[in-house]
Every structure is written in C-alpha cells, then in structure tokens.
Automatic annotation (TrEMBL), chain A:
Compartmental location: Cell membrane
UniProt-listed Pfam families: ABC_tran
Primary location class: membrane
InterPro entries registered for this protein in UniProt: AAA+_ATPase, ABC_carbohydrate_import_ATPase, ABC_transporter-like_ATP-bd, ABC_transporter-like_CS, P-loop_NTPase
Organism: Ruminiclostridium cellobioparum subsp. termitidis CT1112
Domain ABC transporter intervals: 16-253, 264-511
Topology versus the membrane: Peripheral membrane protein
UniProt-recorded name of the protein: ABC-type sugar transport system, ATPase component
Superkingdom assignment: Bacteria
Automatic annotation (TrEMBL), chain B:
Keyword presence, Cell membrane: yes
Full protein name: Ribose ABC transporter permease
This protein's GO CC annotations: plasma membrane
Swiss-Prot/TrEMBL keywords: Cell membrane, Membrane, Transmembrane, Transmembrane helix
Topology of this chain in the membrane: Multi-pass membrane protein
PANTHER family, sorted: ABC TRANSPORTER PERMEASE PROTEIN YPHD-RELATED-RELATED (PTHR32196)
InterPro entries assigned: ABC_transp_permease
Subcellular location(s) of the protein: Cell membrane
Regions crossing the membrane: 21-39, 51-71, 78-94, 100-122, 129-147, 167-191, 223-243, 249-269, 276-298, 304-325
Length: 512, 327
C-alpha cells in the first residue's frame, strides 16, 4: 500500500525538468531563461522556427554543450550533464534526423555500437547480447532477423533500430528530431504506434521535435512552442487547435493568407520531357512544363523524384528518352550546361549539396555569379565591391536574417540558409528553378516567405518545378501537380483537383 | 555556477586564441630565445637574410602544394618532380645544348603535364590522390634516372643559368628571395582574388555543392595539381642553379617540410583553413628551427627527428585549430 502511494507521488515529479536555462553564442541568445518539464510516459512536442533554440536545448541535455546558466533536474534531483556519456547514463537518449547508424553493420551491431560489450573471459559474448537485443526488439514488436544489414532496412525500420538502441541503453527519455521527415504516411503510422506503446505502456518520456503540426496534434500529449530562444507557449494538446499553434509560431495569422493560385495561360512550353528512363529509378516519364508555371512533382520518398530533377539539371545522366528545352533538344552533361541555359537547382540536402559551409554568406551567394562580378570582361578577377552589392541585394530581397554578408553561413538558421541557396541563383535571372524539398527543415515564417518569392517570380514568367513530400504545401502553391510512384507517373492534378487526398491516392496508385 | 561558466568560456576563448596565434607566438618565442642565447651568431641581419634565402625554395614548393591541399587532396610527388626538373633543365642545356630560354619553358611544360596526369587519374579514375601521386612520383624518379643515368650533371652548366640565383638586388638581397616574393604574391592573388581561386576554395569546402553550383570540379582539381607541379618545377630549377648541378635526388626531401609548413600554416591566423600566408609563416618557423639547431651545433640525426616531429605536430595543431573553429 505504501509502495503504491509512493509510486503515485513519483508520477507527480517530472522525469526531467530544466529551470532557467541560458545559453549564448557570441552576442546571440540561443536560450533565454527556458524552463520545461518532461513527464513520465508523455509525448512532449517541441516546436518552433529554426533558430528558436530547440536544438541548443537538446545539445545541452545531450551533454554536447554546457549551459551558461540554469539547472537541470532528473526525478527531482539536481544534475549536471558535462558530457554525452553522463547524459546516456542518466537515461537520456537522442535520435537525430540523420540517424547515427552504420549502414554496413547488422542490427545487433548497430544496437550495441559503442556500448560496453557483454563479455565472458574477455571475449565478446554475442549470445548474451543477442538475447538482450531480442528482448528490446520485442518491446518494439520489430520482427527482423538480427543479422540483417542496416542498409537493407527501410527508413522507418532504421528509426525503430535507433529507438531499440536507446532502449538497449536503458533510456527513460528519448528525444526525436523530425522523425517523420523522410517517412511515408503508412510508416508514420507505424512509428506512432510504437511511440504510443512506449509512453502509455512502458512509461518512457518522448520529446518530439517536428515542424509537422498535423503529426504533433496526433501524437503529442503536450506542446511547448519556442521562439528566439524563449519558451513562448505551453499547452496540453486537448486545449488547442492547429491554427492557434501556427499563430503562436508565426506571430501572425498564416492560415488566413490562403494562397491564390494564378491561372497560367498555358501556351509556351518551356521544357518537354519525353519517355525518360534513368538510373533504374525513373521509368518512361513524360511531361511538359510551361512558362511561368509552378509545377509540383510529388509521390512517396524514393520513387524517383530527386533523380528526375538531377537529370534535368545535368547532375545525373539520362539512360534513354529525350528532353526539349524551348523547343530544342537538350541533354546536359554537367550542371553548368543547364545553368547556362537558365535552369537551376535548389538541392534536397542543404548541408551536403547546397552550401559551402565554412564560407561566408557572400561567398555562397556569389559562387554561381563569379563572372557577373568582373570589372573587365576578359579578366577573371573577382570584384569584391560588386559581389558585396549582389549579396546585399539578395539579402534584402529575400529578407535574409544575417548580421552582415560576411557572416559564416553556418551561423544562419536553416530557413535563412535555404534563402541563400535560392538567392544565389537569382542574379542569373533563371527561367526554370527546380526546387527539391524547398521547405524541409524551414520554419513556418520563412516558409511563407519562400512561397511568396516563388509566386512573385512565377508571375513575372519564371517557371518552377517543385518537388515536395509535404502534401500540405502543394495545393496552395502549385497550379498543376504530377504524382510519381515507382518511377512512373501515376497521375496529374490541376487547380482545384489538387488536394491532400487526391495526391495521396495517386501516390499509392500503380501506373498502367 | 557563473564562475564555472565564465571559466569555461574563458578557457574556450583562450584555446581558440592559442590555435589561431599560437604558432606566431611560438615563432616569436623561438626567435627571442635564440637571440638571447646566441646574440652574435643568430640575431644578425646576415643570418636572417640567410634564413630567408634558404627558406625561399621551401616556401615556393610549399605554397604550390597549398593549392592541392585546399581542394582536399595530397600531392606526394612534389619532391621528385622538383628533383627531376633540376636534372632535366641542366641536362637540356648541357646534353641537348638548348639555350636557357628554351630549356626552362620545356621543363615547366613537362611539370605542368605531370600535374595534369596526376589530376586526370585522380578525378577520372577516382584513385586516391595519395596513392596516385606516390605512384606518379615513382615514375618520375624512374624518368629522372633514365635521363641522367643517376650521375649528376655538373660540368658545362652555362653561367647564365647559375647567375639566375647569384644576382642580388641592390647587391644585398639574394635573387631567390625576390623569386619567392613574386611567385607567392601571384599565387596569393590567384587563390584569393580570381574566379579560379574562388572555385578552388569552393571545391575544398564542399565538392557536391560546388558541382551543383556549376563548377567543373574535376577541372578545378586538375588545375590545382598543375599549380603544385609547376611550383615544384620552379623550385627544382632554382635549386639546380643554386647548387650548380642537376642531381637526381637533390629536392626529394623538400616534400616533408612542405607538408609540415602547409599544416602549420593552416593553424596560423585561420582556424585550420589552408592559406598562402600561413604556409609562408610555416616555412619560416621550420627554417628558423633548423637554423637554430645548426647554430647550437645539434647533430644531424637530431635534425631528422625535428623534421619528423614538426610534421606530426603541425598536423595535430591544424586538426585542433579546425576543431575549435566550429565552437
């Protein structure tokens, strides 16, 4: 009886509590007096624009960075987390968007990676580890042979392996950063079932970091909204609507700003793609893209969308089929050929494909514009005055938040980095801009700004090919959407036919 | 609590300061200590002129190497290319009786070609640059012996060629120093003020992003290897002029010091980024070290130990510097 009362009391004490946490980088306050509670067995949604301080908070809890001030309590006891090792020992586990797993290792190796191995007489006791790992996988209802190599698993299953790894380390709290970013709808469902089971039945606390509000509404028990390093809003999920959350995040009413889709006079075909095959991912794809049109290209992850984009841009080769650009045959062998013709790409992975990360904003913006800054036409010296002018112009035009054009691009938030990746092309007045997941990892405010840039430019005659997994952004943005599945086009939607349901239906449809 | 934090903050700042200016401070301390202990032999104008003179060839080859290291590759062939250039230039003049104005351009073209081959294999066949340049370096050594049969080409080297490094500006400053300054300034301008330089730096920063920005990454890398071989060639020619002969292995050892200088330089003034000014300072840290050792009469074996230790130490320092750059 006594035991029971004690247990009840324990539930009152949050598993993890932070009080008045502060952290500054140079002059920027990344976290300003933030206090939060994470309850046992609850999913706590953490939302906010990029640069709001979510990742800084997580880094502090993970022991990667020290806080400048404030206290951390675990089960009511004040604790210090000087290094990642302590964090793990305290039962805190962190799963980042880019999973830290080894593709060539099998499941058991991945789950036990970096942890003290069970040994008998100094030899690794694989049998015992096998049993322990199996126990953990059973908790997740994951039924895959333990010797399967990680690279053979789907992204969703890789997430489950990461969660298994956390459980194997005896985690009491698991923080997940954008877990659904590259999952399909059905995989999201699967992950959510696991999360529900972990929290409701096993008492694990989950910190769920995401930009996807629909999912937050579905899975979270409580949410905290952060903005500019401050906690600006907290609520349990039953007491709030999605629109209210958006209002808090954006600071203005975004939902009322319903996108107006401009009717395009579809007369001039800019790009014509005919029976393209490539890379085993793209199969017999044909479509036209008109001048000034915003064409959406969607479908599930891995169905050949990115491959198609890279092909048009000349980054990958076409196997067969042909393209016509402005009525003339077009077969770029290098991105440069496409760029010279006015076709540019905003790539999928900003960090590895979009930015030169140890360089300034100015360097990044001017990289494709070097020849535009020449003072003397035949002399290839860089004119730093002119390039600074270009940078300032782009920064102003796209409302980039940066202290100056000389700032290292890594000091910008994700949304602002994305604006630079888009902005670096604008000086060249491109005629076709291909954007691969233009708003991935971009906060709600910057998203709206990016949509506006796209729409404004389209009105002036620039064409867009927007690749997106975000079925919520396509209806408001595109005048026409093509859906791919397994490398083939399964359907085309126009204007009012573009809805979340119709896109999803086509995504799961099979091409004849 | 606050004390603890500010202590951490201070520690981080001081570490960053040390990694940025530590090499310069080390250089100053070295000069100071040598000057106090050996005021008559070390701290003289002539000795400093001597240090610069001896360091000028190292600086030329190391700065050429910097272009390759910036794009994230290695060139292990520079020492052998320099030796070959020395042998070839004297050989062309002595054996083939070519005038100096023809021999030197031929040698430089050969060096550019070696760099081109290096680049081509590395970018097109995707062989690691370390392996490629060791292999090509071996082939160059072979060519060197095939051409010279291993014997130094010493007799009949025209005075005109020897005078290249004998002349002194205002009768005081050795020509080597002038060559070094001119070449380094040109390379600095190329790397920092031209479109090619921006592209080289972009490729070094992120190859994928550079390619998707329309940069011909393979071409940029190949040009970097050509720059490196070209500068190695000039070093070899000047060395041959300086010692008055073409000797098969004359410049082989330049490689280790060049690498040490490049890495020392990356930890100087910038956080682990390779740059010409840094490499230049790196060369003179090493040169003053050697000079000091010689003045103190350290035995030869100790110079080798110093050479090896400074290479490993420099790379370690560079790694630490780039680590603290991100904090």
């Amino acid at each position: 009886m006594d035991n029971l009362i004690e247990q009840n009391e324990e539930i009152e004490v949050p598993f993890l509590e932070v009080k008045g946490i502060k952290k500054s980088f140079a002059a920027v306050k990344a976290l300003d007096d933030v206090s939060l509670c994470f309850q046992k067995g609850k999913v706590h949604g953490l939302i906010g624009a990029n640069g709001a301080g979510k990742s800084t908070l997580i880094k502090i809890l993970a022991g990667v960075q020290p806080q400048d001030g404030g206290e951390i309590f675990i089960n009511g006891k004040e604790t210090k987390i000087p290094n990642p090792h302590t964090s793990t020992e305290l039962g805190l586990s962190f799963i980042h968007q880019e999973l830290s797993l080894v593709e060539d290792f099998n499941i058991i190796e991945n789950i036990t990676l970096g942890m003290p191995k069970k040994t008998t007489l100094g030899m690794i006791n694989w049998r015992k580890m096998h049993r322990d790992v199996e126990k953990v996988l059973k908790r997740l209802k994951l039924n895959i042979p333990l010797n399967t190599q990680l690279k053979e698993l789907s992204v969703a299953n890789k997430w489950l392996v990461s969660i298994a790894r956390a459980l194997y380390q005896d985690a009491k709290l698991i923080a997940m950063d954008e877990p659904t970013a590259s999952l399909s709808e059905s995989e999201v469902e699967l992950l959510f079932n696991v999360i529900k089971d972990l929290t409701e039945n096993q008492g694990i606390s989950i910190v769920y970091v995401s930009h996807r509000l629909d999912e937050i509404m579905e899975i979270c028990d409580e949410i905290t909204v952060m903005k500019d390093g401050k906690k600006v809003f907290y609520s349990s999920i039953g007491e709030i609507t999605k629109d209210q959350i958006i209002d808090v995040i954006a600071g203005f009413n975004l939902s009322s700003e319903k996108a107006e889709v401009k009717k395009v006079e579809n007369t001039d075909v800019l790009l014509q793609v005919e029976n393209i095959y490539a890379n085993q991912k793209v199969k017999d794809v044909s479509f036209e893209l008109y001048k000034g049109e915003i064409l959406g290209l969607t479908g599930l992850v891995g169905v050949g969308r990115t491959e198609l984009a890279r092909m048009i841009f000349g980054a990958d080769r076409i196997k067969s089929g042909r393209m016509l650009y402005k009525g003339k045959p077009f077969s770029p062998k290098h991105p440069k050929h496409a760029i010279d013709k006015g076709i540019v790409l905003v790539p999928e992975d900003r960090r590895t494909e979009g930015i030169i990360s140890n360089k300034s904003v100015n360097f990044n913006i001017n990289l494709p514009n070097l020849s535009h800054t020449r003072s003397i036409k035949w002399l290839s010296f860089v004119n730093s005055k002119k390039s600074a002018e270009i940078s300032k112009d782009i920064i102003k035009r796209l409302l980039v938040k940066t202290s100056s054009e000389h700032t290292n691009i890594l000091n910008l938030s994700g949304g602002n980095q994305q604006k630079i990746v888009i902005g670096k092309w604008l000086k060249r007045s491109p005629e076709l801009i291909i954007m691969d997941e233009p708003t991935r990892g971009v906060d709600v405010g910057a998203r709206a700004e990016i949509y506006n840039i796209i729409k404004e430019m389209a009105v002036k005659g620039t064409s867009f090919l927007i690749i997106s997994s975000d079925v919520e952004e396509l209806p408001g943005l595109c005048s026409r959407v093509i859906v791919l599945n397994e490398g083939r086009i399964t359907g085309e939607l126009t204007d009012s036919m573009i809805t979340k349901d119709s896109i999803l239906k086509l995504s799961y449809a099979h091409a004849k | 609590m606050n004390n603890q934090i500010s202590l951490n903050e201070r520690r981080r700042k001081s570490l960053r300061f040390t990694s940025k200016y530590g090499t310069l401070i080390g250089l100053l301390i070295m000069i100071l200590v040598f000057s106090i202990l050996k005021p008559t032999s070390f701290a003289t104008f002539n000795n400093f002129l001597n240090i610069f003179n001896q360091g000028s060839l190292s600086a030329i080859i190391a700065c050429g190497l910097t272009a390759v290291v910036i794009v994230g590759e290695f060139d292990m062939s520079i020492g052998y290319v320099a030796s070959f250039a020395g042998v070839l230039v004297t050989g062309l003049m002595v054996n083939q009786k070519l005038p100096i104005g023809v021999a030197i351009p031929i040698v430089l073209i050969v060096c550019l070609f070696i760099g081109f081959v290096n680049g081509l294999i590395i970018t097109k066949a995707k062989v690691s640059s370390v392996i490629t340049t060791i292999g090509i370096g071996g082939i160059v050594v072979g060519l060197n012996y095939a051409y010279s049969s291993g014997a130094p080409i010493a007799t009949g080297v025209p005075d005109q060629f020897l005078n290249l490094t004998l002349v002194k500006l205002f009768g005081l400053i050795p020509a080597d120093i002038i060559y070094m300054v001119v070449l380094l300034v040109i390379l600095w301008v190329v790397l920092n003020r031209t479109e090619l330089g921006q592209r080289i730096q972009a490729v070094g920063g992120n190859q994928n992003a550079a390619r998707l920005s329309g940069i011909y990454v393979d071409m940029v890398k190949t040009i970097s290897f050509m720059i490196s071989s070209f500068f190695a060639g000039i070093t070899g020619i000047l060395l041959a002029s300086l010692i008055g002969s073409g000797t098969t292995g004359a410049a082989d050892t330049y490689m280790i010091n060049a690498f040490a200088a490049v890495f020392l330089g990356s930890a100087t003034l910038k956080d682990g980024e390779f740059h010409i000014l840094g490499t230049f300072i790196g060369v003179f840290i090493i040169q003053i070290g050697f000079n000091g050792l010689a003045i103190f009469g350290a035995p030869t074996f100790f110079q080798y130990i110093f050479q090896g230790a400074i290479l490993v130490g420099a790379v370690a320092l560079s790694t630490v510097a780039s680590k603290y750059a991100s904090k």
